[in-house]
Amino acid sequence: MNVSFVIPFHNEEDNAAAMLDRVIQFATSHKWNFEVVPVDDRSNDNTPQILDRYAKKYPNVKPVHRRGGVDLGNTIGAALKDGTKAATGDVIIWTMGDMSDDTQTYKDIVDKISDGYDLVFGSRYMPGGSRGNLDVLKAFLSSNGTLLARVLFGVPVHDITNAFRGFKKKVFDSLQLRSTSFDISPEFALRAHLAGFRLGEVPTVYTNRDRGVPKFKLWKMVKAYLKIYWCLLKEKFTRN
Q1: Which of 45, 88, 102, 157 stands the most exposed, by the fewest C-beta atoms within 10 Å?
Q2: 5 vs 91: CA distance, rounded Å
Q3: Which CATH superfamily is 2-239 part of?
Q4: Per the database record, which ranges form the Glycosyltransferase 2-like domain (predicted)?
């Protein structure tokens, strides 16, 4: 199994090197065949230079540089899609450049995919998982966002608003994801579920960033999630 880590970075010069180190060390220690695809999402700090420096040191670090455009802090979905398209592994892991994801969960995700699941979430809200030091309001809204999806669509997991996940590349290739922001997380989950792919989850512990500036705009994303649900409901009933 070949694993590609797709990591979006926007102005993460304080975290980029440490994040790349932790992923490389983890995958190397487990003797995986892997590559790292860090995506510079139009940063205007030293993030691009850090990624290029690692690419010179490690042949399996393959940066993608996104350039041009506006609204720099609101393109994580586009960055994840571009990185996944460039990835060559048959299994992809999305993990955030702010170091919020637990590296120990990587193995659990890959093991679950090996058991036959197509898309596996790092879940903060299933038994054994934890929101960690995530803000209470954010945790309430994100957990209830998934609860609503469970009611509306019958999604069999507990945390589709978290972008932290692993999946078979063929799942991504078979779907047409339209989101370019944080709402890519629930859209990907719901489209995969509605297409008949097997969804699973493993517990994880979330950690708020220690350095850098958060990019997530809470209420804007709540509206975006609701819009995704409404659009997919209309698509579902139109097909039926």
Answers
A1: 88
A2: 9
A3: Spore Coat Polysaccharide Biosynthesis Protein SpsA; Chain A (3.90.550.10)
A4: 4-174
